[in-house]
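Researcher: Quick one. two chains, 510 residues in total.
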Amino acid sequence: MIESIKRVYMLDVQEELLEKTYERILEFIENSKILEFEVEELEDVVEEF
Amino acid sequence: MVDLAKATIREIHQHIKNLKIKPTRLIEESLKKIDRLDNTLKMFIYIAREEALRYAERLERELEEGICRGLLHGLPFGVKDAFYTEDMPTTGGSKILKDFKPSKDAVTVSRLKDAGVVIIGKTNMHEFAFGVTNKNPHYGFTRNPWNVERISGGSSGGSAVAVSVGICIGGLGTDTAGSIRIPSALCGVVGYKTTYGLINLEGVIPLSWSLDTVGPIAKSVEDVAIILDILTDKKLDLTNITEENTNSEWRIGLPRKIIERMVSEDVEEVFWKSVDKITSYDTRLIEIDLDWFKVLSDTRYIIVLSESAAYHLKWLRNKFNDYDPDVGGRILGGLFIPAPVYIRAQKIRNTLKKKFLHLMEEKKLDGIILPTVPIEAPRVEDEEVVIKGEKMGVRRALLSLTEAFNSLGNPAITIPCGLTENKLPVGLQIATKPNQDKLLLKIAKHFEKIIGRLPEPPILS
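Model:
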């Protein structure tokens, strides 16, 4: 995963830093309300289907 | 000689228009003050000594010929180094852009110049506006004029300090999460975040397209209104607020739970004293519950990371080591945010915008108030602070009460409302519904009159 990210974005950044950054972002998403918050517009679209 | 740390735009204009004070003299005085203070305060990345004097000479000749461009004719101004300037470098506070010289001015800079403003320099900022401390490793840490052991706040810290010490009559800043309001509050001046989209962003180095705004910093609400009138695309006729009777029975929302939970005791004390003053006149406070405040903070973070990573991709590839490691590391994080998360964040914003408007209408509110920053200016070496027993990073604390209004797109203003026991300024933040900028300025002017203005920062005495 990290190697692929490095290749796709053509980054010259240490893999260890990328690994830590990735973990930090996933932790933030997990602790945030972004995934569980009820978004009216999205729910409407899902209902229509 | 008029003291720019005390005088208003209208007061100085009275002297300038009759050439009782010559623009060149005014600019020379400001340059002398820079020489005296900038080694300590680190307000400027570029000092436009020759350019400013040359432009002031031209404006002086115009006055001799009977031409006056308006209230800002010949007045010194600081522009955050995120704005393109055709005759000066534009670094964005970065090493990456240290040699960048734009081919034209930002639209806002061009408007200010046309109005007769003299740009005296490019002010220091947090690198690429991605931070709120103004601890810039390339151009120096901007210090607070109320206590030089403290930070100015950022990312428009240089502009806020230059206004606070009277080098500039006004400053230009950008605000994506609080970058105008935070340093303005910590340095005891007035800072204005406009309704999203009100001011043209062409020629401003972006941080996050769907959140970025630009706005003025000045010493009074009236000065902010005068500058804003030059910057806006719409004809708001904001200078009128100075002539109109601003005494009204405002209905103002007060998110008490948030304040009691998120604001430090010393700031709370100053805030409640100013609230007492306001309510002793004709303003009515209505308690409101903003239980979704934290969600807006999460959405703001996701959006800034994603959008900044998109803009910075070319430098993440080949200049990563030139970033401040803290800034570069955070921008890098944007590459790992999945598209569905970014899209949900944008959709949540829309949902909460509707909720906020519904609340304002249901309670018939003109605006809401809360402190601008929950803590007094932290010490330069502080990495963490404690608020009501909870330890948190300085950045997180500084942003916690401003960023929601960027997510919502509202206009918001900070005005000084007093000093803590440590003699550090506290800002009172007022927000209205989007596109109610004129109403917001009226309310702010009314409150400013009741609360009164701060003394000069100690560095000037």
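Chain A has one domain: 2-48.
Researcher: Thanks, that's what I needed.
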